[in-house]
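Need tokens for this chain, all 345 residues.
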Amino acid sequence: MILSLFSFEILILMSVKISVIVPVYNVEKYVEKCIDSILSQTYRNYEIIILNDGSTDSSYDILLKYKDNPHITIVDKKNTGQSDTRYQGLLLSKGEYIYHVDADDFIEPCTLELLASEAEKTNADMVFGRYRLIDEQGKTLREQRRYKKKTIEGRENILSAAIHNSNYKATLWLKLIRKTILTASYNEDIRRIRVNEDVCLSVCLAFYCKKIAFINDIIYNVLQRQDSVSRNKNPDLITINDTIYAIIRNRLKNINLWYSFESVFYNGYVKTISYALALSAEKCSSYKEYLLYFSSLDKESIYYSKELKKKIHILNFPYREVYIISRFPKIFFITIRLFKRFLKH
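Here are the structure tokens for all 345 residues:
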């Protein structure tokens, strides 16, 4: 008996290998290209779970065009934020592995095939690829640096790389993740995070991984939208770091690894918050505006804590120097602006 292509797709989906989760919120200009890039994959053993997170534009109407595709499940829900929406997608997923795609980006035709092949070859809990940053005209702005390692094994080695963000990118859309690992990593605290949840979840994933693998293929295209400057100028991107690193610290203490990872923890925190401050200094139009963002840091935060001041000697170069300068907002603002101008020339 000769099966139709449709019937063949249905049989494949009875045993899904990869679940692709796509949260959608007000991306009417981009979402169709995103979905089409997933449907164009050379690898066919996948499902797509698309969750409309309370969009107020025509995004949901566009999604309905795909409602009859056997690969696609569409969910319309009230707005709860990206982190919780991704979790709702995880609950619905049938795949052995999970892959995340943001609805304003798109993936390469061989993305799932490359990731699945490496996962099968290495039996890794996570497989990382590389990304390309493009503008709205499709011009490549930059490509991610190549990975220095092919694999990292052992929980403590993976945790160290994750917390310190070394050869281990935080963004979820670079990772094919074993579902059992992702399910174990989530909790209510992570689901409530509204910005930068990738940073927290990526570190929490490392607590459960035995092996991760890296491929140097470009698998993902990140769109730098025209409104990305305003999104980067968000005080929450600064203040959320204390919430994220408090979750990480508690997990380290719960498994008696705090003292082993104290140095890595503080280096990771300083690196992350310094980047957030530098991004604000770069994007703000004046020092007065930057000072408003800097002032959003709570005086009770890790940044101002006596504990961090006491541990300053364990910070690596250049994080120690950047942290010291950042405590003087005007000097830090001028330094970042001068550095930016120097790079332009």
